[in-house]
C-alpha cells in the first residue's frame, strides 16, 4: 500500500501574507506540494486567473456543489462562499502527495474533523497595525472591505490555539523556512511506521 500524502492546512487573516508565503513554499523543490484550488463566489481580482488562483463560480453553481457533496469543506467569508473540491484532495493524497490548503478558520475546523491527521498551521501577523498596512498596501480592497476583513481577522486570531503550529510572518523567508521545517519534521515523524519499511521488517 502506498504511503498517503499529508494534508497541510494554512490559515491566517486576510493580508497576513498566506499567498506570498505559499508561493515561496511552492518554489521549494524538495517539498513538492500540490495546491488545492478552491471554488469561490468572490469576483476575480486583477491578474487572478480562473483555474489557477480559484475556480470562480456563481452562487447557484456553488450551492449546486454543496448539494452534490463535492466540497470537503466550505464557509461564507465576508459575503462570499469559499470551498475545497473534495475529489482532487482525495485523489492526490491517495497518490502519496502532500496537499496544501490555504483556507480560513471555519473551513479549517471542518477539515480537522474529517482529517484529524492533517497538519494545521496558522500564519500570524507581527501586529494588527502591520496587518492593516499589508491589506492597504496590496490595494485590492475598498475601505469597507478592509474594515470587514480586519473584523474577521480578530475572530480568526482567537482561533489560533486550535492549530498545531503558529508561525509569525515577520519576513517571508523566515516564515517559509519555519513551515518547511514543520513539514519536513512531520514526514520524519510519520516515516517511523511507513508502509515502505514494512517489507524490510518482513525480511528480518
Ligand atoms: N473555508 C475556505 N476558505 C478559503 C478557501 N479558499 C480560500 N479561503 C480563504 O478565504 C479567505 C478570503 O480569501 P481571499 O478573498 O482570496 O482573500 P485574501 O485572504 O485577502 O487573499 C482567506 O482566508 C482564504 O484563505 C476554501 O476553499 N475554503
Ligand atoms: N512578511 C511580509 N512582510 C511585508 N509584507 C508582506 C509580507 N508577506 C506578505 N506581504 C505583503 O502583504 C500583502 C498581503 O499579502 P498576501 O500574500 O496577499 O496575503 P493573504 O494571502 O494572506 O491575504 C501583499 O502586498 C504582500 O506583498
UniProtKB/TrEMBL annotation:
CDD domains documented for this protein: GMPK
Domain Guanylate kinase-like: start-end pairs: 5-184
Keyword presence, Metal-binding: no
Subcellular location as annotated: Cytoplasm
GO cellular component: cytosol
Binding residues for ATP: 12-19
A single MF term (Gene Ontology): GMP kinase activity
EC number: 2.7.4.8
Sections of the chain in a coiled coil: none
InterPro entries: GK/Ca_channel_bsu, Guanylate_kin-like_dom, Guanylate_kinase, Guanylate_kinase_CS, P-loop_NTPase
PROSITE patterns in UniProt: GUANYLATE_KINASE_1 (PS00856), GUANYLATE_KINASE_2 (PS50052)
Keyword Secreted: no
Enzymatic reactions: GMP + ATP = GDP + ADP
EC class of the enzyme, as a word: transferase
Assigned keywords, A-Z: ATP-binding, Cytoplasm, Kinase, Nucleotide-binding, Transferase
Function: Essential for recycling GMP and indirectly, cGMP.
Family, similarity comment: Belongs to the guanylate kinase family.
Protein name: Guanylate kinase
Organismal lineage: Bacteria, Bacillati, Bacillota, Bacilli, Bacillales
Amino acid at each position: 500500500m502506498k504511503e498517503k500524502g499529508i494534508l497541510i492546512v494554512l490559515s491566517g487573516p486576510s493580508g497576513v501574507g498566506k499567498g506570498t508565503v505559499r508561493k515561496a513554499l511552492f518554489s521549494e523543490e524538495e517539498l513538492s506540494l500540490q495546491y488545492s484550488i478552491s471554488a469561490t463566489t468572490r469576483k476575480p481580482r486583477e491578474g487572478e486567473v480562473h483555474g489557477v488562483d480559484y475556480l470562480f463560480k456563481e452562487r447557484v453553481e456553488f450551492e449546486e456543489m454543496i448539494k452534490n457533496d463535492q466540497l470537503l469543506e466550505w464557509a461564507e467569508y465576508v459575503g462570499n462562499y469559499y470551498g475545497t473540491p473534495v475529489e482532487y484532495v482525495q485523489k492526490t493524497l491517495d497518490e502519496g502527495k502532500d496537499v496544501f490548503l490555504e483556507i480560513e478558520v471555519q473551513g479549517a475546523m471542518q477539515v480537522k474533523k474529517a482529517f484529524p491527521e492533517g497538519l494545521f498551521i496558522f500564519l500570524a501577523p507581527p501586529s494588527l497595525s502591520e496587518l492593516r498596512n499589508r491589506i492597504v498596501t496590496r490595494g485590492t480592497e475598498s475601505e469597507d472591505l478592509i474594515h470587514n476583513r480586519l473584523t474577521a481577522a480578530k475572530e480568526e486570531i482567537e482561533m489560533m490555539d486550535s492549530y498545531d503550529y503558529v508561525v509569525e510572518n515577520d519576513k517571508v523567508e523566515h516564515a517559509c523556512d519555519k513551515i518547511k521545517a514543520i513539514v519536513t519534521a512531520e514526514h520524519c515523524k510519520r516515516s517511523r511506521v511507513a508502509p515502505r519499511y514494512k517489507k524490510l521488517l518482513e525480511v528480518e
